[in-house]
């Protein structure tokens, strides 16, 4: 299979875009990515999105977005894997280029959660869980994560305050990201006093949902767009794994076996290990998810994920900087777009375009996008220089 | 890229399966396809589905179905392209095997439209249209097709009764298909007297929606499953094209340019033309769609699609047999599953397993799955002998 590079990136700010529809958001990101890549056409478009049907009464986003950005006629689909939809779409684009199906592909993640007409966002998010065995009992998506966090605290003797550094780090990094939703620092004290959402998850354990879109342009490595503005970044690994959707069906609810499988497949493909990774865009939908992801991906021992944060190793100066542009927590979590945002941000870092948030000498970056509470995990490893 | 073959097929009957949930339907089809292929594992699962989120509150079907059929852990996603979701999922599976990403892939199309909890099916189907510019005005999906049919009748001087042979042929063929929803013949008189739905579309112009699932197992050509029951069938071509979602945005509402692009790309890939095709599974969601698809795909001149049917050329004894197992009209149209049903039925024909419905000496079969009123069109050409 061919090596694949990212030759262009685009994103909208994450927030409440009352005046922008789904197609406008996607269009903004795609056109920005095409301009950045210096291309005016593409062979195919892969759209990652979870909630457009329920929330805005619009499916069929492949054809819709392709037409709206001036690419009427090209192959185009929507890919859905709950909160992992963005990276799942990227993986389809990667496979198309790597396998020789297409030479120039656009991947866009988009979610519109403000100004929706049909349903509440909470009703939408729980579609990531098992409708017949979880949500039927009235569990919300945050409640499922709360059960995991409570169990983790019990099992490993960890206090709620031990999770604070994840939120503090994310907010600190969001300050320097013009596209982030919450560009203000928070303190551990504020974290401790934040309003309870689903015990023990409070407001500052939780990522902010919002509207947004991010896009990348993919091409075989070595191919350069005319007028390409940024350096290409190579996709060294792309991998996906799944697990039971219902948490109670898993062998061990505190071990994300799909994250482990996905991360270690990616390490093998790239020929690297966790120690070689210079930054890691973690799927911090809730602080507990960061912990479980870091442990399953080999960055911390089991039960020691919060320790990694407490010792400062997750900051830009630490051993494994995470959520370097604010993460889901503070950049914001437009669900089906998140996986593409993560990869756009890793690309910014590897190009040296991360501004105040730059991780020095970043060469290898990883992004892990999680669907549901760990049932779908997609991992990409990117390398500077395409 | 590698040649890809279908080495196993499975399907449920289409109907009102009040006692079977979404995952059971998908499981039945996938396990049947795996048994038919003689395989007990797979590298990846691609699920085509349009409406599970809105209708049953369940997204994340990739991981859900993979786990339910005993394949927990494998790569799995849902692919959505409105009513073209099934064939769009097949195309992803095809690309994965052809490109070398995977060796053994399962594609499943599934839709559950009975016993839904959240919304009416009509609300769901119109998500294939443009929410901001079509459905916002109260247009239903059948109304959009009615506008097309009315315009076609006006433009080409065709009467409503001229469409009768499509419905009559589909029902006739469904009689011999144990998985079809409406296994009874109808007459042109019954067609003429059927209840009006959205003038000029009446009940017998319209396909029946239902629950159902169909699945195929894909592998590189030449690879044979241990205990494989049926002959392999080779995918000679796989192609997809799109158009504007909103009908009023198209250059010519009566010409399915995406069907033309998709079909002729497929002919080029297979090195054949319309005359070489022995049977054609048409996306007859409404009789007008059959006509437009046949014309755009090169089987009839513009404005002459009904003539092809009136002269008997679409029956099993005609020049281009269509809807040989009942089509969407009479086998039933479980929306996101339909594209996979079509391919399963072509495979039955090319294997000589179509029973009373066998098209004699069928060697090349085509299936065309349409999303919306022509905005996404996916065409596959299959050849007997894998």
Shape of chain A: globular
Please report the total strand number of chain A as a whole number.
11
For the biggest sheet of chain A, the summary is: 9 strands, mixed
Query: Largest contact between protein chains?
Result: A-B, 64 and 64 residues
Helix content of chain A: 25-40%
Given as residue ranges, the uncertain stretches of chain A (5+ residues, pLDDT < 50) are none
Distance between the termini of chain A: 16 Å
* Number of helical segments with 4 or more residues of chain A: 13
Overall mean confidence score, pLDDT of chain A: 97
Written as H for each helix and E for each strand, in order along the chain, the element string of chain A is EHEHHEHEHHHHEEEEHEHHHHEE
Structural class of chain A: alpha/beta
Radius of gyration of chain A: 19 Å
Beta-strand percent range of chain A: 15-25%
Widest β-sheet, arrangement of strands of chain A: 3-2-4-7-1-8-11-10-9
Write down the oligomeric state.
homodimer
What labels would you give this structure?
alpha/beta, 11 strands, 13 helices, about 20% strand, two-stranded antiparallel ribbon, about 375 residues, about 35% helix, homodimer, nine-stranded mixed sheet, globular
Summarize the structure.
The structure is a homodimer of 386-residue chains. With 386 residues, chain A is of the alpha/beta class.
């Amino acid at each position: 299979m061919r090596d694949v590079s990212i030759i262009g990136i685009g994103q909208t700010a994450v927030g409440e875009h009352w005046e922008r529809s789904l197609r406008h958001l996607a269009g903004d990101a795609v056109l920005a990515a095409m301009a950045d890549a210096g291309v005016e056409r593409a062979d195919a478009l892969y759209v990652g999105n979870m909630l457009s049907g329920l929330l805005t009464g619009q499916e069929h986003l492949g054809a819709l977005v392709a037409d709206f950005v001036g690419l009427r006629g090209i192959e185009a689909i929507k890919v859905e894997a709950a909160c992992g939809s963005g990276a799942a779409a990227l993986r389809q684009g990667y496979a198309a280029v790597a396998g020789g199906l297409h030479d120039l592909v656009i991947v866009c993640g988009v979610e519109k959660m403000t100004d929706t007409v049909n349903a509440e966002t909470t009703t939408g998010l729980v579609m990531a869980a098992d409708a017949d065995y979880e949500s039927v009992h009235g569990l919300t998506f945050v409640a499922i994560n709360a059960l995991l966090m409570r169990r983790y605290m019990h099992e490993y003797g960890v206090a709620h305050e031990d999770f604070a550094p994840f939120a503090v780090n994310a907010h600190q990094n969001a300050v320097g990201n013009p596209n982030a939703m919450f560009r203000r620092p928070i303190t551990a004290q504020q974290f401790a006093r934040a309003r309870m959402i689903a015990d023990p998850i409070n407001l500052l354990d939780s990522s902010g949902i919002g509207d947004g879109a991010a896009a990348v342009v993919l091409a075989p490595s070595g191919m350069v767009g005319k007028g390409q503005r940024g350096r290409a970044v190579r996709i060294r690994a792309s991998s996906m794994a799944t697990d039971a959707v219902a948490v109670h069906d898993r062998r061990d609810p505190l071990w994300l076996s799909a994250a482990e499988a996905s991360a270690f497949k990616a390490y093998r493909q790239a020929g690297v290990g966790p120690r070689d990774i210079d930054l890691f865009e973690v799927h911090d939908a809730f602080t507990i998810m960061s912990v479980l992801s870091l442990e399953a991906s080999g960055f911390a021992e089991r039960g020691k994920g919060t320790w990694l944060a407490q010792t400062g190793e997750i900051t830009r100066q630490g051993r494994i900087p995470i959520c370097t542009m604010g993460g889901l927590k503070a950049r914001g979590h437009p669900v089906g777009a998140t996986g593409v945002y993560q990869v756009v941000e890793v690309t910014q870092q590897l190009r040296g375009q991360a501004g105040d948030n730059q991780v020095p000498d970043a060469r290898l970056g990883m992004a892990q996008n999680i669907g549901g509470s760990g049932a779908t995990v997609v991992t990409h490893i990117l390398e500077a220089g395409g």
